[in-house]
Structures are given as C-alpha cells and as structure tokens.
C-alpha cells in the first residue's frame, strides 16, 4: 500500500505537495469520485433504512389520489414524488425498489465472485482435465451474451426471487474465475505459495490464508464491475416483466409499469430511471478509480 | 494458420454443442417436454405421438440424440401461440432485427472509433475527458432508460418522431439511436486504450524522430497496429447488439427476434425460446469465428508461427 | 554412521513438447540424470555448476517438492516421497529450504514476525512452544533487530529479507537445510554477512546443509564437500579442499580458473584462465558419450562415444572423466 501511494504521488506532482493541502486531496480523490462515493453510501443507507423512512407502505393504495405529479410540478407534499396509477406513493415504492434491486445485485455479485473464486482455485490447483473443463465453461460463458441465457432459464424455470438471484449470480463469474486462476498460478510460480507449502502448510491454508488475501483487492475491483452490470441486467429483465414479479417491486419493474403512463405521468418512470443511472454511473466510476489506484496493470 | 482456425472452429462447434446440451438439460429439468411444448390441453394422441417422435420414453442419451437430430433438421416444435413452426417464426423475425442491428453496427464504428482515436490523440485534454465521460455514461445508461427518454423527448414532447411500430424509416431512427449509444461508448473506450497503448510504444517515437509528420506517424504506424484489437472488439460487439436488441425492440414494439423471444419467455412458449436461443448462439459463434479469422489473417505474428497461440 | 541424506541414481526428466498444439516430437529434458550422493550429519555439501545444470531441481527433489522420475532419496534412513500427504507435511519439520529470491518467497501481506511464526502455527498447534517468543528469539539469532519485526517484506532490505526467510526456515530447528543460491540476489556487501550468519547458525543448531551455488568462492568458504554438476550429472565430487585445490575434471578446472584470486595458496597445473569453447549446453539435446566433450579441449575419440565411469582418484575425491580413468588405470598415480 505504501509503495503504490508513493508511486502515484511521485508520478503526479514533481514538487511534492504537503499531504494535508486541499490541492493534494482533490488530486488524489477527484471531485467526481468523491460525489460518486457519496451517492453510493447514500443509496446504501437509504436501502437499509427503506422500511423506516418510507412515508407509506409501498403497496398502500389511495385511489382518490391517482397519478398525482411530484411536489413542485403541481403535486402536494403528501406525495413528494407523486403517485402512480393506483395511488401508490412513488417515493415509498422507490425506496423499496432500491432495497430490492440492491439486495439482488449484492447477493448476485457475491455469489458470482464465490463461484468464480472456487472454480478458479480448482482450475489452478488441479490442472489437468479439471482445468480444461473450467476453461471451456469460461469460454462458453464469455461467448454468449448473458441476457440470452437468462431469458432461456427464465422461460423454463419460471421466476421466484431465489431463483432469480441464483440466475443473476451466474453473471460475471467467468471474470472472477479468470482472475483467480491466473493470479493463483502466478502466486504458485512466484514462490510464496510454494514456500508456504514447503513449510508444511496444507493446501487449504495456502489458499485461504495466503493466496486469497493477496488476490482479494483484484477480485473486489472486478466485483465493482459486476455489481452495476447486475443492476442493469436485473432492471432490464424486470422492465420486460420477466424479472422481479409483483407484488415485489424493483427499479426496473417501476420503469416497466410506468411506461404506459409515459405521456400522462412520466414521473413514475423517471424517478427509478434516475436512480438506476446515478447508481450504476457512480459505481462504475468508483470502480475505475479503484482499479487505477490499486493495480494499473489491470484492464 | 489453418491449425489455429481448425482449433477455433472446434471450439465454436463445442460451444454450440454445449448450448444444445444446455437447452436440452433445462428442458428436461423443468418438466415434461411434451406437456410444455404441446400445451396442457393437447389431445392424448398428440401427446403420445409427440413423445414418440421425440423419443421421450427412451433412455436419456438416446433422447438427447433424437433431440440433436430434430434440431439439425430444424424441427423445434410449434409455437404455442399460433401453432406455426417455431423456427419459422424466429427466421421470419430476423430481417426486422437486422434492420436495426446493421445500421447500429455501422454507426457504432463510424462514431465510436473516430471518437476513441481522437480522444487518444488529445489525451487528457477537455476533448478526451468529454469523450470518456460520454463513454462511461453510454456504458452505464440502460438501453431501456435511454429509449424511453428519447421517446419522451422526441415523440411525446417534440412530436418529431413516432414512438414505436414498424411502418417506415422514421420509426427506425429512435431504436437505432438507442442501440448505437451503448456500443459506441464501449468501442470508443476500447479504441482509446488500444491507441494509447500503441502510441506509448518505442517505435512510434522512433518514427516521429525519423522526421515524419505526426499525422503520417499516426496513419502509417499507429493506426494499423491499433486496428487489430479494435477489429476484435468490434466483432464481439455483435453479441452486445443482440442483447441490446432484446430490450430495445420491446421498448419500441419492433417485431424482431428480441421482442419475439421476450414474449415467448413471458408466455413460456418453449419451442420458440429454444429456437431463438439456438439461432442467436449460432450467429454469435459464427461472428466470433469470422473475427478470429480476420485476426488471424492480419496478425503477422500468428501467420508466421504455425499453430502458436497468442 | 548413516548419512542424514542419501541420494541414489536420482533422475528427473521433463517432457518438453516441440509444438504446443499438436504433439510432434516430444523431447525429454534430463534435468537430473542419475545423481548419487550423500551428506553426513553436520556436514555441508555444496553443489556447483552453471545455470541449467540441474542444481535447483536437485534441491526440490531432495526435499520431496517434486517427484523423481527414477532413483531414491532417503532422509534419516526413511525414503522421501513427493506425495503431499500428512506424513510429508509432518516431515517438513526436519528439512527446510532457503530460496534465491527472498522477496518472492515471502507473502507480501504479512509482517516479518508473522512469517516466522507461521511454521510454529502449522506444526505446533498445541502451543508447546510459545510461538511469539520462539519466533522472536529466532529472529534475533539471525541478526534482525526488534524494530524490524513488524515490517513488511517490501520495507526490508534484501539482506534483511533473506534473514527473515532463514529465520522462518530454522524456527522449527530442522536437521537439514537446503540453500538454493541464497546469496545470488543480494548485494555483494551483504553476501558476506549472510554467509557468516549461516556458518554461525550451522554450528549453533548442528545443521546439515546442502548448499547450491554457482559461486565457487562462497562454496570454498562454507562447504565441507563439493559436487560439481554438469547437464544433470555429477562429474566430480569430493572434499572441498581436494576438488577446489586439485580439480581433476576439465570442467571443474575451467570453473576454478575463472575465479582464481591472485596470491591464493592452491596450486593448479595450469593457473592461466581456461576458456571453454562452444555454447553452454542445452539440457534437451544432451551430447553423446561424455556430455562435456563438445567443449573440452582434451576430448578424445572415446569421449564422444562412451559415457565415463566414476573413478576414485583420492581418498575423498571421485571424477567422471575418461582421462582420469585411463591415467588411474594406467599409472595409478595422482595428477
């Protein structure tokens, strides 16, 4: 960690800036990145506290107040972001949708990283035909757009939340597997893995106490790539009506249902759209920045 | 070179085979194929005949073999909706998709590549930052959001363009635009980094030290070397276009393969889903193979050493 | 007295494929091609040779880190296998290795103290030995000051890192220490320190050492016995004094002539620098007969066709060279 920091500050400023100066801070942490991180933290807090801060239940109907515009466009403060065709408060639904979408994205990203990690380890450790199988699977996964596979699975198996999360978890594992495998092979060839083996450590110990912590940072950066992709995938599928099913609501879901009222009540789909865009943008930007900081050799 | 192409072709066949196996597996796992493909209230004789023609009472490997034969013959069963053969429905919807995909692909190349090159040549300037911001924005913007936004602006508010349907060229403008943005963003980004990598090479400095004008250096040395990875990415973007088409066609009610597949999934019209899945896979695999061939043809390193892998 | 380490006819072949895609013409790389040697308790055997002669492969074979293609390795009377099972891991307590590049041998995420403590955690889980205390005392014994304990590998100098590797290897008090070019990657000024450290520790801990190096000066300083390797075979072996002062094999002579220091007390038949002709050998294409004959100025017709046998030419001195076989059988006197 010290070395990378030193290198980056060497490369950036010839006369070294005092570490506490504001200029240094904005150079190390560009304003766009700071805003992105702030948004991400905000969204996560909102998602966690959704049930507490939502003014209404997300299924609460109020047929007398249907299709109310948001406050400032002719609406009242009772419904800050307006209501939908059934009188449900858009803000509350938005908060719950954020919760659901983030939950799915989070669980899927972890699942995908876990699958990739295990398969990558297996391929690097056992080599031989096991490695060939894993490589073929990686190839296969990388050559077919995941959307198509997802559609096929959804057609055949229907759609429960658990199944959906597992399906989303199958996206992007090939990236983690590739990274894990190549870094593990490098670690084994490099020496410290071999050296610890030669000390008498079992393979478990070598992988989980030594190799894994060393590749963790690379994996985490890869996960910041997968996370927004899952959000996009899930919202796309939900938009099409194939993802999260009612009464549950997700960001894509809201956009899908709001589509009918594009002309009459555009706020129904604009609010979740904004959230999707801002969130994926923030995470992508932060991921890029992290990648540049941690490991410029990654692409 | 032939060895390389041979191994790539084998890989392609293997992928197709895996997808067929995948389709077969999930078909068998999810219930009784006869009931699902024929629909629950088909007469028992039809079910029995189906079972026989598909060999559903035979051992598993035999079933798979029968399935494989059926697929090769193009027999995927009939659509639940109107009873027409599934494959025919899929094939009929291809032209509509191509009407969107091909212009989008061309626009991707025409916008993405120059933007990337331009950004690379003016690195860290405001042009570069602008292009990269658009690139990130285009990459993270979901196509359905973009599509709806465009409809909101151009169809609803301004009334310049129609919001959907399949009647004329003006109907295609918004969908093509939507499809283009994502692809152009990705292409711009890859082009930029490929160019930057080439520009950082010592032989570029040597070329300009020889006294060549910068434009000559770029055109004669930088571009050809950067071209190869760009070509590869461009070819692989086809898959992205297909995935994008699925959503965009639904947004604009465009009767292409994407929309057909989505409604088939929604109706659990498994015959159509299988047919679409396989067709899309085959076309993707074929595209990848073409990209491999182009790569092989133009990369002197691969041509020179026979059988060596990059 | 049985030797602590005993190697008989050890062979290790790698198959090298000519073409990655299609298996055309598999060639065999004979990294180790029939090596027999033994190391007595408390002794230090040096293995010298050029790069590619198989020294590092020997190190791994001896410790059972890679399996042998043929031949046996015995440690303390028991055979050493490369099977990574429980017995193999338990045997690690008694035999350890020091590496050429200390930076890559250490986990960059652990502090020096953590690295040295790890063997204790692996082998002594029930805490008979207090891990922290044992580790610290070992680190002090190798010359690391307390302020270095919490540093990470990249915060240490080359010499300090090698000391950490050494401490880690010795913390369980093994009987055998295999050093694979332990000082090649260090600055010259530090090399002497580390060598002196090794000699001190060897005495303190009654270590038996296998010292692999291409640097004859160091080998002369630290080793009791020396074996010279060429293309996977031992071509000369004996006590360090005999081999290095009275080298018999032309190859050994050439090696020694390259490091002759002026005013040294040894006497060689030819003190001038011997330059070997030809290219360094390719272990995939081993020459027929005596593998050294393409580069040997004294090669005869026999050298091209027949493999020389090992001839004893002194009390603690054997050589594999036709010249000496002839001389020895001929006149029976030393050169």
How many structurally independent domains of chain B? 1
Mean pLDDT of chain C: 83
Quaternary state, please? heterotrimer
The strand line-up of the biggest sheet of chain C is 6-7-8-3-9-10-12-11
CATH class descriptor of the domain at 3-94 and 174-243 in chain C = Alpha Beta
In CATH terms, what is the fold-level topology of the domain at 3-94 and 174-243 in chain C? Rossmann fold
Radius of gyration of chain B over all CA atoms, rounded: 24 Å
Number of helices, counting only DSSP H or I runs of 4 residues or more of chain C: 12
Q: How many helices of chain B?
A: 13
Number of strands of chain C: 12
Provide the residue-averaged pLDDT of chain B.
80
- SS-derived structural category of chain B: mainly alpha
State the secondary-structure class of chain C.
alpha/beta
Largest sheet of chain C: 8 strands, mixed
* Sequence of secondary-structure elements of chain C: EEEHEEHEHHHHEHEHEEHHHEEH
Topology, element by element:
The complex is a heterotrimer of chains A (299), B (310) and C (335).
Chain A: H1 2-12, H2 22-28, H3 31-53, H4 90-126, H5 128-143, H6 146-157, H7 161-169, H8 173-190, H9 192-198, H10 203-239, H11 251-258, H12 267-294
Helix pairs in contact in A: 3-4, 3-12, 4-5, 4-7, 4-8, 4-10, 4-11, 4-12, 5-8, 6-7, 8-10, 9-10, 10-11, 10-12, 11-12
Chain B: H1 2-29, H2 33-38, H3 44-53, H4 60-73, H5 86-121, H6 126-140, H7 143-157, H8 169-199, H9 202-209, H10 214-251, H11 257-267, H12 270-298, H13 300-304
Helix pairs in contact in B: 1-12, 5-6, 5-8, 5-10, 5-11, 5-12, 6-8, 7-8, 7-10, 8-10, 9-10, 10-11, 10-12, 11-12
Chain C: E1 5-17, E2 26-39, E3 44-48, H1 55-63, E4 70-75, E5 78-79, H2 86-91, E6 95-98, H3 102-105, H4 112-123, H5 131-141, H6 158-170, E7 176-180, H7 188-205, E8 208-213, H8 216-222, E9 225-230, E10 233-239, H9 240-245, H10 250-258, H11 301-305, E11 310-314, E12 317-320, H12 322-330
Parallel strand pairs in C: 3-8, 3-9, 6-7, 7-8
Antiparallel strand pairs in C: 1-2, 1-4, 4-5, 9-10, 10-12, 11-12
């Amino acid at each position: 960690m010290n070395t990378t920091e030193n290198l980056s500050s060497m490369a950036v400023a010839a006369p070294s800036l005092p570490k506490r100066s504001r200029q240094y801070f904005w150079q190390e942490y560009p304003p766009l990145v700071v805003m992105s991180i702030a948004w991400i933290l905000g969204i996560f807090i909102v998602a966690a506290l959704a049930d507490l801060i939502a003014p209404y239940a997300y299924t609460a109907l109020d047929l007398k107040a249907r299709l109310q515009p948001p406050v400032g466009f002719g609406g009242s403060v009772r419904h800050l972001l307006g209501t939908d065709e059934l009188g449900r408060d858009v803000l509350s639904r938005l908060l719950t949708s954020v919760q659901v979408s983030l939950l799915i994205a989070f669980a899927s990203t972890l699942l995908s990283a876990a699958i990739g990690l295990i398969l990558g380890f297996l391929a690097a450790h056992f080599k031989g035909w096991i490695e060939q199988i894993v490589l073929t699977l990686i190839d296969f996964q990388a050559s077919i757009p995941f959307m198509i596979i997802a559609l096929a699975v959804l057609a055949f198996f229907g759609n429960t939340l658990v199944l959906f999360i597992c399906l989303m978890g199958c996206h992007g594992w090939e990236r983690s597997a590739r990274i894990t495998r190549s870094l593990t092979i490098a670690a084994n060839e490099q020496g410290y893995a071999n050296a610890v083996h030669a000390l008498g450590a079992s393979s478990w110990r070598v992988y989980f106490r030594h190799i894994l912590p060393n590749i963790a940072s690379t994996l985490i950066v890869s996960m910041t790539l997968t996370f927004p992709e899952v959000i996009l995938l899930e919202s796309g599928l939900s938009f099409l009506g194939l993802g999260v099913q009612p009464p549950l609501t997700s960001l894509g879901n809201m956009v899908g249902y709001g589509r009918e009222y594009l002309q009459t009540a555009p706020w129904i789909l604009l609010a979740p759209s904004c959230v999707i865009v801002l969130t994926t943008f923030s995470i992508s930007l932060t991921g890029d920045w992290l990648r540049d900081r941690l490991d410029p050799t990654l692409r | 070179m032939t060895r390389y192409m041979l191994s790539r072709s084998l890989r392609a066949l293997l992928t197709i085979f895996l997808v067929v196996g995948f389709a077969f597996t999930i078909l068998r796992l999810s219930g009784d194929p006869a009931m699902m493909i024929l629909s629950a209230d088909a007469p028992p004789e039809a079910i029995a005949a189906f079972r026989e023609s598909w060999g559903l009472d035979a051992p598993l490997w035999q079933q798979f073999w029968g399935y494989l034969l059926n697929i090769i013959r193009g027999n995927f069963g009939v659509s639940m909706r109107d009873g027409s053969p599934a494959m025919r429905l899929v094939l009929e919807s291809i032209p509509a998709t191509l009407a969107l995909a091909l212009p989008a692909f061309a626009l991707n190349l025409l916008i993405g590549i120059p933007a990337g090159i331009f950004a690379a040549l003016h690195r860290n300037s405001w042009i570069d930052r602008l292009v990269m911001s658009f690139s990130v924005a285009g990459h993270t913007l979901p196509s359905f959001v973009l599509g709806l936004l465009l409809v909101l602006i151009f169809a609803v508010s301004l009334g310049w363009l129609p919001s959907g349907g399949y009647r004329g060229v003006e109907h295609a403008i918004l969908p093509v635009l939507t499809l283009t943005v994502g692809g152009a963003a990705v292409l711009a980004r890859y082009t930029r980094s490929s160019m930057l990598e080439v520009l950082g090479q010592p032989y570029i400095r040597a070329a300009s030290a020889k006294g060549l004008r910068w434009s000559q250096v770029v055109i004669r040395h930088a571009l050809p070397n950067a071209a190869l990875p760009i070509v590869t990415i461009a070819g692989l973007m086809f898959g992205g276009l297909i995935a994008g088409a699925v959503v965009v066609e639904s947004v604009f009610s465009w009767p292409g393969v994407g929309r057909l597949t989505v409604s088939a999934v929604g109706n659990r019209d498994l015959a159509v889903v299988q047919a679409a899945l396989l067709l899309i896979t085959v076309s993707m695999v074929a595209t990848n193979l073409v990209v491999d061939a182009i790569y092989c043809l133009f990369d002197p390193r691969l041509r020179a050493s026979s059988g060596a892998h990059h | 007295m049985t030797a602590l380490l005993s190697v008989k006819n050890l062979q290790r072949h790698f198959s090298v494929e000519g073409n990655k895609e299609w298996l055309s013409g598999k060639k065999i790389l004979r990294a180790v091609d029939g090596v027999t040697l033994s190391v007595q308790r408390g002794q230090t055997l040096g293995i010298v040779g050029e790069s590619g002669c198989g020294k590092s492969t020997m190190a791994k074979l001896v410790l059972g880190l890679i399996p042998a293609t043929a031949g046996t390795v015995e440690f303390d009377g028991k055979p050493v296998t490369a099977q990574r099972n429980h017995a193999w891991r338990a045997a690690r307590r008694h035999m350890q290795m020091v590496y050429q590049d200390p930076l890559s041998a250490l986990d960059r995420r652990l502090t020096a103290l953590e690295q040295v403590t790890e063997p204790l955690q692996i082998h002594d889980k029930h805490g008979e030995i207090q891990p922290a205390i044992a580790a610290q005392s070992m680190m002090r014994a190798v010359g690391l000051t307390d302020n270095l304990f919490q540093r990470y590998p990249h915060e240490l100098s080359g010499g300090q890192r090698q000391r950490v590797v050494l401490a880690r290897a010795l913390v369980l008090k093994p009987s055998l220490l295999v050093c694979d070019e332990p000082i090649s990657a260090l600055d010259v000024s530090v090399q002497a320190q580390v060598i002196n450290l090794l000699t001190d520790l060897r005495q303190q801990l009654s270590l038996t050492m296998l010292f692999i190096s291409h640097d004859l000066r160091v080998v002369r300083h630290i080793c009791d016995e020396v074996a010279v390797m060429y293309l996977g075979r031992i071509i000369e072996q004996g006590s360090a004094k005999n081999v290095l002062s009275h080298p018999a094999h032309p190859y050994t002579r050439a090696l020694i002539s390259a490091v002759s220091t002026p005013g040294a007390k040894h006497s060689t038949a030819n003190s001038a620098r011997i330059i070997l002709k030809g290219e360094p050998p390719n272990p995939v294409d081993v020459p027929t007969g005596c593998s050294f004959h393409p580069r040997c100025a004294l090669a005869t017709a026999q050298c091209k066709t027949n493999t020389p046998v090992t001839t004893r030419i002194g009390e603690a001195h054997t050589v594999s060279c036709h010249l000496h076989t002839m001389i020895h059988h001929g006149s029976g006197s030393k050169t």
